[in-house]
Amino acid sequence: MSGYGHEGDERTFAALPPTQGAAFTRTWWGRAWLKALEDTALDGQQLKAGRRQARAGAVGAVSVRPGRITAVVKDRDGTAYRSDVLVRELSEEEWERLLDLAVDSAGHIAALLDREMPPHLVEDAAAAGLDLLPGIGDLDPECGCEAWDHCPHTSALCYQVARLLDEDPFVLLLMRGRGERTLLDQLQARSASRAARGGRGTGDTPEAEGAEVVGGMPGVSAEEAYAAEFLLPPLPAPPVAPDAPGLSPSLDTETEPAPGIDPAALEFLASDASDRAHRMLVEALGGGTSGALTAGGVGAGGAGGAGGGSWAAGTAAGTPLTVAQDAVRLASDSPAPWLTARLTSGSDRTRAEMDLATRAWRFGGAAALAVLEEEWTPDTEALLWAGTRLSEAWVDDERPVLRRAGARWTVVGAEAQLRLGEDGRWWPYLKSGARWSPAGPPDRDPATALATALAAAPTGAGG
């Protein structure tokens, strides 16, 4: 097995949910991957067993790195095996040839950026002696069950990877030795170097690439023009964000405000808008994914999103906050007592209700507030999965006894509760006086969230 992968070229994909009925792959390159598996394995019954396990969701998180894919696969009895499938990496010389082929046709790059495997790239690579897609014997299994051929565990892993390949052909290129970021950086550098030398590669002509000729001058397809924009040199560094938000103007003037206008409240809203704008600018110029830029519209009173660091969690993309939600967002920043009192009254809450609402907001914005104040009924599949996961997380004599009502599970004999949000996250809750109060941030795993609640419950209150 070669060792040409670059440091950091590894991706981990969360476990995929169970699937029933549908084919494992819908793309031609996904089918080519499965054909390599089916042509390689000697025992068709092992493949069928692996396919069943993949459908049942027995494959855990999948790690993909140069030359290897890895996952933990569970049998029906709960026994877990680490399973690996080895794939030959391309050598440095082979990658050089493949990069030349990709740069020669901007359409290849455009297709990859659109998450498609261009057939012409595979054909051109094959003509140059490079096999991008695996063939018979190319998927080499290694499993903790010590089977010498493809067993149900490595087969299940391969079937699951076919679903990943459907969504992103860069997964295949990573197995062959280059991650997406590394590959795109190398393509960009190669294209810039070629442009600095004055044009195309040796022997390349517009006619050879099938470029359209208009009025005696060679043309360029729209696909190639679009991809070429990606290959241009990078833009200059963005400007530096200011250290602090700007100050809102003082509205304390000798002029009487119009009826219904409260200058002090208006100053508070202006400062809040300035703070959020500064936070959005810092996130945008920092180069990260700015939840503030995508997480919400404009809420009540001209303010949208969540207060403090929870702005990105405030609301779903493009969904404005309601007046009651925005009041909680504003109150979560602990304004002056008179403002908190007005926000409480204006949202038709008592002070105790507002305290609970702001506590929830600080854990997760509008989603956390909905879990606190709203009730809903999950579907049967979600309930079955939760019951299984909670049952597996404790041994029989330590497992807490739970009583479910809707999307809420209460621990019998303990002041602890588990709540499921409509986004699929689980929230720990504790009894606080006569009310239930959020006890921490959410988790995708119900057992983890429940453990958080039990750990925070008063000593001796066990289920």
Fold and architecture overview:
This protein has 463 residues and is an alpha+beta fold. It is 42% helix and 11% strand. The chain is built from 16 helices and 12 strands. The protein has a 5-stranded antiparallel β-sheet. A 5-stranded antiparallel β-sheet has the order 8-9-10-11-12. Strands 6-7 form a two-stranded antiparallel sheet. Helix 3 crosses helix 8. The chain is flat and about 80 Å long.
Kindly state the number of beta strands: 12
- The rounded distance between the terminal residues' Cα atoms is 52 Å
- Taken in chain order, the helices and strands follow as EHHEEEHHHEHHHEEHHHHHHHEEEEEH
Unreliable runs, pLDDT <50, ≥5 residues?
A: 1-5, 200-217, 288-317
Strand order of the largest sheet: 1-2-3-4-5
If you average the pLDDT, what whole number results? Answer: 79
Structural class: alpha+beta
Largest sheet: 5 strands, antiparallel
Q: Helix proportion of residues, in percent?
A: 40-55%
Radius of gyration: 29 Å
- Structural shape: flat
Number of helices: 16
Strand-residue fraction?
Answer: 5-15%
Brief characterization of the structure:
This protein has 16 helices and twelve strands.
Helix and strand arrangement:
Elements: E1 11-13, H1 28-40, H2 44-55, E2 62-65, E3 68-74, E4 80-86, H3 92-104, H4 106-113, H5 119-127, E5 140-143, H6 152-167, H7 170-175, H8 180-196, E6 213-214, E7 217-218, H9 222-230, H10 263-285, H11 291-294, H12 323-331, H13 337-346, H14 351-373, H15 380-392, E8 402-405, E9 408-411, E10 416-420, E11 426-432, E12 435-438, H16 446-456
Antiparallel strand pairs: 1-2, 2-3, 3-4, 4-5, 6-7, 8-9, 9-10, 10-11, 11-12
Helix pairs in contact: 1-6, 2-6, 3-8, 4-9, 12-13, 12-14
